From TrEMBL:
Keywords: Lipid biosynthesis, Lipid metabolism, Membrane, Phospholipid biosynthesis, Phospholipid metabolism, Transferase, Transmembrane, Transmembrane helix. Its EC number is 2.7.8.8. GO terms for molecular function: CDP-diacylglycerol-serine O-phosphatidyltransferase activity. One of its GO terms (cellular component) is endomembrane system. It catalyses: a CDP-1,2-diacyl-sn-glycerol + L-serine = a 1,2-diacyl-sn-glycero-3-phospho-L-serine + CMP + H(+). This is CDP-diacylglycerol--serine O-phosphatidyltransferase. It comes from the Bacteria. The chain crosses the membrane at residues 27-49, 89-108, 114-132, 153-174, 180-203, 215-231, 237-254. Residues 214-250 form the CDP-alcohol phosphatidyltransferase C-terminal domain. It comes from Microvirga flocculans. The lineage of its organism: Bacteria, Pseudomonadati, Pseudomonadota, Alphaproteobacteria, Hyphomicrobiales. It is a multi-pass membrane protein. One of its GO terms (biological process) is phospholipid biosynthetic process. Residues 267-290 are annotated as: Disordered. Belongs to the CDP-alcohol phosphatidyltransferase class-I family.
Length: 290
């Protein structure tokens, strides 16, 4: 039997097999930012049910800022991945679909009982449908370049921040009592419609790729001024930003239609130009051969 099973001594110099493939740090960092934003969103729910609405809103605002950072950090570090994209979508659903709706329900919509809860469900489902459509449109290879300047429907962070307008007003001293609950319900359902609609909303993704030199210093000053105002007058600034954003949607629609008509006219002219060039090539006599 000893001949059948000879003793075996492993080679100490043999490299050890890795059970898992190592992941670069540049891929991990954006996902950590996304998870921090998710923790803020979940913490905001706890703060809201403890009646601490101001820190809950601040947590959502910081989560929205981190949501705008993680993707840019991933592209800057060249650490984009399919896992990161799916994690970002799930975090957006919690932070911007579930959390703001629950905060608003705890703050005001609970006065309407089941009807208020239905509005919460509609808003959350509209958010997840909007995120699913966004992920599908990213894989569309035939999407024109100019359409990247627009979102189809209201983006998720904007939907979350604008939905909390009743809380901003209450923090400013406006009386938001049970009588305002039906208005808040209609407002929340209107935002849900904007998210699932095909209304184009300007994204501004291409802004800042190249900034003229004469605008650099004014942009620095404006950025510092906005940060100072947001830090010292947060609810006034958030209210103003919400109103300005909602007021800019009709201008986004007009600009989108203008670019769409220009693109359609250019596409209609292209086949005609190609046929004219082909016919002129056929009608030209061939040069005599040497």
């Amino acid at each position: 039997m000893s001949d059948l099973f000879p003793p075996f001594a492993p080679d100490p110099n043999e490299p050890r097999r890795r059970l898992f493939k190592p992941v670069p740090v540049r891929v991990i960092i954006p996902n950590i930012i996304t998870l921090i934003a998710l923790c803020l969103g979940l913490t905001a729910i706890r703060l809201a049910f403890e009646g601490r609405y101001e820190p809950a809103v601040v947590a959502i605002v910081v989560a929205a800022l981190l949501d705008g950072v993680d993707g840019r950090v991933a592209r800057l570090l060249k650490g984009t991945s399919r896992f990161g994209a799916e994690l970002d979508s799930l975090a957006d659903f919690v932070n911007f679909g579930v959390t703001p709706a629950l905060i608003l329900y705890s703050f005001l919509l609970h006065e309407l009982k089941a009807v208020g809860w239905i509005a919460v469900l509609v808003f959350a489902i509209a958010m997840v449908l909007r995120l699913a459509r966004f992920n599908v449109m990213l894989d569309d290879p035939h999407r024109p370049e100019w359409k990247k300047n627009f979102f189809t429907g209201m983006p998720a962070p904007a939907g979350a921040l604008t939905s909390m307008l009743p809380l901003y007003l209450s923090f400013l001293g406006v009386s938001v009592g049970p009588a305002a609950a039906p208005l808040a319900l209609v407002y929340l359902l209107g935002l849900a419609f904007l998210m699932v609609s095909t209304i184009p909303v300007y994204s501004g993704k291409t802004i800042g790729l190249k900034v003229p030199r004469q605008w650099v210093l004014p942009i620095f000053v404006l950025s510092v001024a906005v940060f100072g105002l947001l830090a010292n007058f947060p609810w006034e600034m958030l209210t103003a930003i919400t109103v300005l954003f909602l007021g800019s949607i009709p201008f986004s629609v007009m600009r989108y239609r203008q670019l769409d008509r220009a693109h359609a006219a250019q596409a209609a002219q292209a086949p005609g130009q190609a046929s004219d060039q082909a016919s002129s090539a056929v009608s030209e006599p061939e040069p005599p051969s040497a």
